[in-house]
Amino acid sequence: MLNLAWATILLLADIASASPPSGSGLGDWGPAYTKAKAALAKLSLSDKVGLVTGVTWEGGSCVGNTSPASKIGYPSLCLQDSPLGVRFVNGSTTAWPAGIHVGATWDRSLLNARGAAMGAESKGVGVNVQLGPVAGPLGKIAEAGRNWEGFTNDPYLSGIAMQQTIRGMQSSGVQACAKHFILNEQELNRQSMSGNADDRTLHELYIWPFADAIYNGAASVMCSYNQVNGTFACESEKVMQILKGELNFQGFVVSDWNAQSSTVNSAVSGLDMTMPGSDFNSPPGSIYWGQNLINAVNSGSVPQSRVDDMVTRILASWYRLGQDQNYPPVLFNSFNGGNGAPDVKGDHGTLARTIAGDGIVLLKNSKNALPLSKPKSIALVGQDAIVNPAGANACSDRGCDTGLMAMGWGSGTSEFPYLVAPYDAISAQSKIDGTKVILSSTDSTASGAQAAAQADVAMVFINADSGEGYISVQNVPGDTSAGDRNNLNAWHNGDQLVAAVAAVNKNTIVVVHSVGPIILENILAQPNVTAVVFSGPAGEESGNGLADIIYGRKSPSGKLPYTIAKKATDYNTAVVPGNDPYTEGLFIDYRHFDQAGITPRYEFGYGLSYTTFSYSNLKTNFYDHSAGNTKPIPGGKQGDFDNVATVTMTVTNTGKVAGAEISQLYIGLPSSAPTSPPKQLRGFHKNLIQPGKSQDVTFILRRRDLSYWDVPSQSWKVPSGTFNVYVGASSRDIRLKGTM
Ligand code: NOJ
């Protein structure tokens, strides 16, 4: 029943979603399974166990490695971080904008292209499984350390981002690993705490983007450290049943590193691969699988069929991506400085720069502060304007906040081959423009004010950083952050730096590089702050991406992938010291602000442009197949009843310059549905439109997009009654309203 409900919906959704590139899609596992089963027949129990057990941390070149099986030409599989590039490779791969920054582009083609380029680089240096992308943490807690590795805290947008990234990565031949499944929403106590979410919340928020990952063919899923409703995720039959039953996942489940805690139970529940193959705790160096798994099979406590299933899944993923054909061997060693790998960057810097610019969100722009037009002089203030003087990679796993924040810290990082800081890119344009640049490259308020007092325009650079909990980074003296942020303030006394500059310069432009929302109230209270430019961790081309926006080489088009509140307590969530009861349920981020009637500072989906757009011509069409209507919807295929509705409208560029608009569709469920968020994102499009021109936009709604998760029947249900349809420029700037 369970299986059927999801499988039917998912299969149809995939068929309907206009031709995924080869190597993705749910339907094409068959041939890979045939090959995997034939290969399996040639393996001994000890070979099989070698394929499912890591060779211990630092036991191979990658962060995760398994034993080879030469009889079937199977290599020591290389699993390597990270979601934004290839970790531990020195200089020869691209340091991409982080997930949250790409999320802010809302751009399917950029997501896909980044995935493809990143996947090609992973393959180019011999990585078999790239450990990304990230849909968990989803980001329900604004302070949580690793939110920036994922795309947004909206499940719909996250799902599309997972879809596009995975299709891109796997079209280049690398196996994607959707992580971390599931409820891994904070760093504090992540290895012990339990996330206790109700079934509806689990499905409508947290499982949702993983469903998109799986039915777009993700080869693997990483189970998370935390417990889910009282059982460790990697040991939980329920968690594995969701993946392999409900979602009909055909690939393999790999543990997060040391997230396994038993030999038999993990195997029987459904874990398929353990990484890195050692348990550091009890006793040190002990290994749950390896010989212990062989013993467990021999004693009958783990069925042989379960081990065969593990191996079949792992081999099928490998065959399905064609990794049995001329796949490069591993060409780097993570543990010797990552030197010597071939340069596989190609011209990817261009794409990295495009994304760096398109992910920037213009929050405020008054008195025509931006774009800049050849100012006579400009002061650049703050250490975030420059590269860390000790070097972009000086802190291991980027575990410090010195200089420009272009990625967070932890395992979700890569080495910068180079890093263009704002100062570099602005200096280059200033030479052309004849602008005098005055730099104050510290966070000293005195020297910042001194620089700003001499310039026509002052740009203040502030940031906020976070990362994975195994590294603690100093925020302000005495205040360290072990992964999660302690608060939502700018780091290094950023508010005071802005105040000092704004006190002496009437055209103060604030540039923020942040892993997530920060509280901007003090900054916005400064009357001389004319503009606020908000960027995520934008990778190696950060400075050039910024310059493209502030000089008006293109219009800003990024929109917030989360809400910026007026105060931290306006969010309904916080890092918790013990287990997390998920009492907020469905009401996270804008779903909560809407429900509770709280006005945010900048709402989910918000972002300014250098031009303006108008919306018109709303039409809704619901294809009620249950009423015997057999006509498929436009854009769908004959027999396709998964796409159930369309919403169409027209966007017009009413300003003077070209610009891209991200139009958004929100749906409010009929009153017959159980209590639900007032509106939820269920569609978006990004259209580049010339001044005076219009474009027609069609949002296609899948059945799931109009459903709630019905717990008693364990299925998605379309409620009867009238749906509210909202189309607009953000979650609160609704331009067109209708019903369906
Ligand atoms: C632990 C992290 O949670 C995970 O994301 C990463 O892939 C592994 N370590 C390997 O570094």
UniProtKB/TrEMBL annotation:
GO CC terms in record: extracellular region
Gene3D superfamilies found in the cross-reference section: Glycoside hydrolase family 3 C-terminal domain, Glycoside hydrolase, family 3, N-terminal domain, Immunoglobulins
Signal peptide (from-to): 1-18
Alphabetic keyword roster: Carbohydrate metabolism, Cellulose degradation, Glycoprotein, Glycosidase, Hydrolase, Polysaccharide degradation, Secreted, Signal
InterPro entries documented for this protein: Cellulose_deg_GH3, Fn3-like, GH, Glyco_hydro_3_C, Glyco_hydro_3_C_sf, Glyco_hydro_3_N, Glyco_hydro_3_N_sf, Ig-like_fold
Any single biological process term in GO: cellulose catabolic process
Pathway: Glycan metabolism; cellulose degradation
Enzyme class: hydrolase
Subcellular locations according to the entry: Secreted
Pfam families assigned: Fn3-like, Glyco_hydro_3, Glyco_hydro_3_C
Gene Ontology molecular function terms on file: beta-glucosidase activity
Catalytic activity: Hydrolysis of terminal, non-reducing beta-D-glucosyl residues with release of beta-D-glucose
Domain of life, source organism: Eukaryota
PANTHER family named among the record's database cross-references: BETA-GLUCOSIDASE, BETA-GLUCOSIDASE L-RELATED
Membership in a protein family: Belongs to the glycosyl hydrolase 3 family.
Name assigned to this protein: beta-glucosidase
Naturally occurring in which organism (per UniProt): Gomphillus americanus
